[in-house]
Amino acid sequence: MTTRRQEKRQSNLLIRLLLVVVFSGGYLALAVLGRGGIGALFAQPALIALTVVLVALCGTALVAGVGERRSAREGSTASEGLKGRDRWKQHWKQHCADA
Asked: What is this structure's pTM?
């Protein structure tokens, strides 16, 4: 028996999977159309590398944040950034006072 939280997590994962596949597939389809076909797209090593990076980022987008608590995900980067800014301001004020 699955709980409501598990059902919501599964549906969120399915929505995320659908969005990642549809939009990255659309992006890749536009690249294929712009180059004039799959053969023309994959004829250049740089475009092959770009496609590999796209696939890697899609995989990362699918697993990002899985298993983390919401409180651990939200605000950690913003609060750390603000703390760093405050430390920098204090250091700069001390540096200017010493000069």
From this structure: 0.57
Q: Which of 36, 42, 43 minimizes the C-alpha distance to 54?
A: 42
Q: Which range of residues forms the domain containing residue 58?
A: 4-67
Q: What is the pLDDT along the chain (99 residues), one digit of tens a residue?
A: 567 777 777 777 888 889 999 999 999 999 999 999 999 999 999 999 999 999 999 888 888 766 655 555 555 555 666 676 777 777 777 877 776
**Rounded Cα gap, residues 41 and 32, in angstroms:** 6
77 shares a domain with 46: no
Instruction: Please report, as a single letter, which amino acid is at residue 56.
Output: A
Q: Which residues of 58-91 are buried (b: 16+ CB within 10 A; e: fewer)?
A: beeeeeeeeeeeeeeeeeeeeeeeeeeeeeeeee
CB 58 within 8 A of CB 20: yes
